[in-house]
Description:
single chain, mainly alpha
Amino acid sequence: MSMHHRFQSDSPHGNVVFNFLGNPAGELAAWGAGNRRAAQTLLQGLQAASGYRCNDVYPIFFLYRHALELYLKAVVHEGSVWMGFVQKEWQTPERLFSDHRLSRLLPPVREIFESLDWTWDFDIPGLRSFDDFAAFVRSVEEIDEKSFAFRYPVTKDGTAALPHHSVLNVFAYAQSMEQVLCILDAAVTGIQEAWQSVAESIDETRLMCGELSP
């Protein structure tokens, strides 16, 4: 499907396809990965620079924060499929796609991990337990609760998005984010493999029982 003609070109180079698979909710992790790679690219440029302006760095904070939100929602969305197999009373959190708060996703993430018998000790200092993981997520939310602080200098009512002279180190922020995003990216893949394995087992059972045609 072509979009507005103004944004078309005679050359296919630069073309980007949206909603490629027709399953947009299933692309949450892919979009998270895209934001993460964009942040990495900007960070590499910053590391190579002899100086920088603060406003050139703000997008890195937003991209990582947005990647974290997308990955957490991907874990919950993909995990909901898994939980539907093993726990029929499971309810996907309300407003999963419209609420930008991060801490509300912690209980379902923990329940999904525990259902899969995954340990929270990733042999990473500061991430040796669920409490460590939750503390990190809440620390990000304390700075940017609704995904506005790194996008706008002001809130909806015109007040400051962050306190006067707030200071964050982008390299420390990125290092922590990379550790957490690596874990969440692997979790999404692990969840998909788990429920696909269960689905295949169910299909094989039905086939053996004559419910499906080979």
